[in-house]
Each structure stands twice: as structure tokens, then as C-alpha cells.
Amino acid sequence: MARDGARPAYDPAGHDGDLRAALQEVRTGRWLSMRVLLERTTAWWQWTRRTQVLAAAAAGTDVVRAWLAEEPHSVPATVMQARVAVERALRAHRERHLRTHELWIEAWDLSQSAARTAPPDPVPWVCLLALAQLDRKLLWEEHRAAPPEPSLPPGPWGLLDEAGRRDPHNREAHHRMLQFLYTQAGSGRLAGAAGFAHLVAGTAPPGSALHVLPLYVRAERYRRGGGRGAALDLHWVAEDATREALRAREGWFDRAGPAERSPLDLNHLAHALWGALRFADAAEVFDAIGPYCTPLPWAYHVPAPGDHAEAVQVFLQARTRSRPAARGPGS
């Protein structure tokens, strides 16, 4: 797949063609394709991913509101309403908008409502987990629950448990927990986040995307350390970094079906294997990525992380360096 030198592009749908078609409709203010897609989505992992991607596209529109106006009792529309509200609150927080607190409370209310409307659905609990990172001072009791292990800090562990009861090993729920732990770590060490990631990866079943979780913590540590610089080789070639990359490949990539591999996980794995100088292993992941690269983690290697064009250049350099190793000597 994509073994030529084609220049990749970012597409949040990745290899999910049905999601891509629905996204195009959402961006033009139409909701029917989104409804049809979600009605046909039965697996929780796919439901979680699709609602997340659709919400990111719908957050700048009134498309979900229009859907609810036509079908006020629609359960998928109610869940999407919560998704969009959470996306707007998180964006406002990143932009330090004056309405952040107002949007946060609105999103919390809608997520609670969605949890009551769709009791078996993990997504409303994922939404509540996502909002927990806004509570930097841990003012809410549900955000300072006792951890499952003494080595971990207090946090929204009850919310994670609720998501896990509905969909064990839910990928996004654990990433949202990781983001919460990042905010609590501040500018200091990421011991809590690293401990959580390794604990989760160590108990994840074969084929679970949670085997990739430690690679995200390593990338975050690299970003906080200043990213691009002379420490690159030491950071990524260290024995524990190589071990994490190979475990992610063996536990997830080698056992998960192509449809279950998210573009972001694929890019983090290719990046880690390339950084560990495991070029032949990386080349197989690059082939699975195909034309759908993601800005992160490649952007951590450029002076301006928001420069996606430069991030693509790093991706291309890594792919070009890796592929000859897969073809063997003399290729």
C-alpha cells in the first residue's frame, strides 16, 4: 500500500471511506449521511472514533442542532450534541476564550443528559473524561477519586471505569485520561502519565490500541523537553524506547485488523520505530499508513509545531530512510 513516493496528506477519516463521505456532507451543513452512518455503526470502537471525528467537523456548524430540530428524540443526535459541545469547550480552553467556563458547564450538562439517554454508550462518559482536563485545580469531587494503584495520582477514575464498563479498553477513554494526567503534571515530570500508560498497555488484550499508549507519553516528554535538538537520538534509541516501540508493534499492529488501526496510532508507531532505528519494522507501518499521515508526532521535530508542511517533510524523510531497509541490501 502506497509504496511509491506519493506525498501524504492529513485526512481525519483515514482509511474509513464511509466516514469521509459523511464528513463532506457535514462540512456543507447536511446531516443525513451522518445519521445513516451512525445508524449502521455497531462496534463501540468504531462508534467512538466516528463520533469524535464527526464532532470535530460539526463543531463549527449548526448541523447537529438542525438534526435535533428534525428528530428531537434521536439518540445518536443527542450523543453528537454532547460531542460537539465538548469539542467547543476544549477549543475555547485552548484559545483562552472568555466563554470557556460557560461552554464547559453546557458540555457537562449535555454529556450527563446523553449518558441518561444512551445508558449502554461509552461516549458520554468519554465526553465527561475529556472535560476533566479543564478542572486544573481539581475542584470537582469526581475528578479527584482515589486511583486504582497507589503509584497513580487522584483523578477521574470513576469516569474511566464507567466508560470501561460499557466498552472495556476503550481507546479514546484512556487517551482522555492521559490528557488529564498531563495537565496535572504541569511542567514537571510525567511519572504519573508514564505509569498509567505502562499499566494499561501491560494489561491490554492482543490487538488493542492501548499497546501504543506509552509511545504517546514518550512523544509528550520529548515535546516538553524542547523537541528538535541533539537529544533526539538518545531519546528515541534508548533501550526502553526501543522496547516500547517493539511491544506496540507486536501487541497491536501485528494483531489488529487494518480497519481498527487509527491514523494517529499508526503515525506514532512508525515514528517510534524510525526513531529507534528499526527501519524495516517502520517501513511496514509506513505502508499501512498509506497517504494518510498525521501532523503529530512529526511536528515535534520542526521549529514551529503548527507548520504542517514541515511536519510532512519529516514524515517523508523518515519514510524514505525506512523503506530501503525493508527491501534489503542492494535495493
Work out the count of structural domains. 2
> What percentage of the residues does DSSP assign to strands (E)?
under 5%
> Low-confidence parts, pLDDT < 50 over ≥5 residues?
none
Helix content: 55-70%
Gross geometry: globular
Task: Name the features.
single chain, 331 residues, mainly alpha, Serine Threonine Protein Phosphatase 5, Tetratricopeptide repeat, DUF4034 domain-containing protein
Notes on the protein architecture:
The chain is mostly helical and 331 residues long. It folds into two domains: 14-186, Serine Threonine Protein Phosphatase 5, Tetratricopeptide repeat (Alpha Horseshoe); 193-331, no CATH class. It is 62% helix and 0% strand. The protein has helices at 17-27, 32-39, 44-58, 63-70, 75-94, 100-117, 123-132, 157-166, 171-185, 191-203, 213-224, 232-237, 239-253, 263-275, 279-289, 308-327. Helix 1 (17-27) runs parallel beside helix 3 and helix 13 runs antiparallel to helix 14. The longest helix has 20 residues, at 75-94. It is globular. The two termini are 18 Å apart.
Provide a short characterization of the protein structure.
Helices cover 62% and strands 0% of the residues. It has 331 residues and is mostly helical. The model has no long low-confidence stretch (mean pLDDT 92).
List the helices and strands and how they pair.
Layout: H1 17-27, H2 32-39, H3 44-58, H4 63-70, H5 75-94, H6 100-117, H7 123-132, H8 157-166, H9 171-185, H10 191-203, H11 213-224, H12 232-237, H13 239-253, H14 263-275, H15 279-289, H16 308-327
Helix pairs in contact: 1-2, 1-3, 3-5, 4-5, 5-6, 5-7, 6-7, 7-8, 7-9, 9-10, 10-11, 11-13, 13-14, 14-15, 15-16
